[in-house]
Write a structure and sequence with these properties.
- The structure is a single chain.
- The protein is 38% helix and 13% strand.
- It has two domains: 162 residues, Creatinase/prolidase N-terminal domain (Creatine Amidinohydrolase, Chain A, domain 1, 3-Layer(aba) Sandwich), CATH 3.40.350.10; 292 residues, Creatinase/methionine aminopeptidase superfamily (Creatine Amidinohydrolase), CATH 3.90.230.10.
- A five-stranded mixed beta sheet has the order 6-5-4-1-7. Strands 8-9-10 form a three-stranded antiparallel beta sheet. A three-stranded antiparallel beta sheet has the order 11-14-15, covered by helices on one side.
- The protein starts with a helix and ends with a helix.
- It is of the alpha+beta class and 464 residues long.
């Protein structure tokens, strides 16, 4: 946990934003894999962690704004629990570590909330993503579990999102701790990967690094020769010389802050000429985007700038043609770059995403686009100092999408479908770093991870 003053300061700031009512925070429970006692690895709710820091299942908390009270609800371990789990601190002891003095058993939460509700007081809660907590809220508040998120407090969503989005120096250090693990995962993958291996051998190896150095992976590893499949969690392909692999992976620090880094490298240790040409375009797009980051600039504009670099690079290879400004405005480049430039990073690898992207990534000035590719941009607003955001452009050759657009004669004035035939089995290339918005610009966080062609080839050729 962080020092107690940090949690107290976070709650005080939230109380200044929420003027009245009761704020309810549900921690997560254990989630069974196939029977009750065999659970998935526990992961606490990030907002509960942010304000209270207790990294254990079956807790809840309230901030009673009207009464200026903070209460943690949880149950002390019984002797039966202790037999299986060992001696444990009491709920009171755990609460004091985050600066909360008042505690009650979980059984008292329902009566507390009903009493507040009977007095006409507002119960604020954030959107839920676990069905078990939706059912719990149905019991506690009498709201149909299938409609729980319709009643989430917009006032609380805005307040928490504003607070969590801007990272303190302690949080940035935790993110850098997570990036240091991702550094080892990336370098180890480049050195370990050899022709004849299955993808799963490498994916399993680097997941072990995350487990040994931190709290495990921050999301399921994407390690695949089929980089054109954006979220590919299949690891059954055999690798061969001439293949390139996309390694999109990240770890959680011991306090659960995330990293998210992508590198693309050749299995043999050497890129082909065609791979180099595409790689250089992606790298230039990424560097251009990073250099464009500064307070007040919308991330949508930076996304479009990276998109323009990609389109211009593809035009130089005669894969695109025509007026590039018009091509990007109409979305023709999205055949090759069909996702957003990046997302917020923090306690969640896609930070705050359970609040709904439109609630924190867009505002009254910048509305979400319906255009293919651009509509997948998760964060579009003007950047502010303290935000940590990923920068991850890519170029992908998706055979099914190419065939569909070709059959529809879509954007023929901008796309050279005849030239594209030679690239349909190319795969994809993505390069990603985690970037802090500073007062005057940006800073790539963590120890630099090789990403120029010469750097990547030097590491990937040095096999262990």
């Amino acid at each position: 946990m962080f020092p107690v003053k940090i949690y107290k300061q976070r709650r005080e700031e939230l109380k200044r934003k929420i003027k009245s009512g009761v704020i309810l925070f549900l921690g997560n429970d254990e989630s069974p894999m196939n029977y009750t006692d065999n659970a998935y690895k526990f992961r606490q709710d990030s907002t509960f962690l942010y304000y209270f820091g207790i990294d254990e299942p079956s807790f809840a908390a309230v901030i009673d704004v009207d009464e200026d009270k903070e209460i943690i609800f949880g149950n002390d371990f019984t002797i039966d629990d202790i037999i299986w789990m060992g001696e444990q601190k009491t709920v009171k002891q755990k609460a004091l570590r985050c600066g909360v003095k008042e505690t009650f058993s979980m059984s008292q939460l329902e009566s507390f909330l009903k009493n507040a509700f009977s007095k006409g007081r507002k119960i604020h809660f954030i959107p839920q993503y676990r069905h078990s907590n939706m059912i719990k809220l149905q019991i506690l508040l009498g709201i149909d579990a299938t409609r729980i998120n319709d009643y989430a407090s917009q006032e609380l969503i805005k307040a928490v999102a504003e607070q969590r989005a801007v990272k303190s120096s302690e949080e940035i250090q935790e993110i850098e701790n997570a990036i240091s693990i991702a550094y080892e995962m990336q370098i180890s993958a480049m050195k370990f990967t050899k022709a004849g291996m299955l993808e799963k051998e490498v994916a399993g190896f680097i997941e072990g690094i995350a487990l040994s150095m931190g709290s495990g992976i921050s999301f399921p590893i994407i390690f695949s020769k089929h980089g054109e499949i954006l979220h590919n969690h299949f690891y059954g392909n055999k690798l061969k010389d001439g293949d390139i692999v996309v390694n999109d992976c990240g770890a959680e620090s011991l306090l659960h802050y995330a990293s998210d880094i992508t590198r693309t490298f050749p299995v043999s240790g050497r890129f082909t000429q065609a791979q180099k040409e595409i790689y250089e375009i992606v790298l230039y797009a990424q560097l251009t985007a990073i250099n464009s980051i500064k307070p007040g600039v919308s991330y949508k504009d930076i996304h479009l700038k990276a998109s323009t670099v990609i389109a211009e690079g593809l035009k130089a290879l005669k894969l695109m043609r025509g007026d590039i400004k018009e091509a990007v405005e109409k979305g023709a480049h999205a055949l090759f770059f069909p996702h957003g430039l990046g997302h917020l990073l923090g306690l969640d690898v896609h930070d705050l995403e359970n609040f709904g992207e439109n609630n924190f990534g867009y505002d009254n000035k910048i509305k979400r686009s319906s255009q293919f590719g651009l509509k997948s941009l998760r964060y579009a607003k003007a950047l502010v100092p303290g935000i940590v955001i990923t920068v991850e452009p890519g170029i992908y050759f998706i055979p099914q999408l190419i065939e569909q657009w070709k059959a529809e004669k879509k954007f023929e004035e901008f796309i050279n479908y005849e030239k594209l035939e030679a690239y349909k089995n190319f795969g994809g290339i993505r390069i990603e770093d985690d970037v802090l918005v500073t007062k005057n610009g940006s800073k790539v966080l963590g120890k630099p991870i090789p990403k120029t062609i010469d750097e990547v080839e030097a590491i990937a050729s040095d096999k262990v």
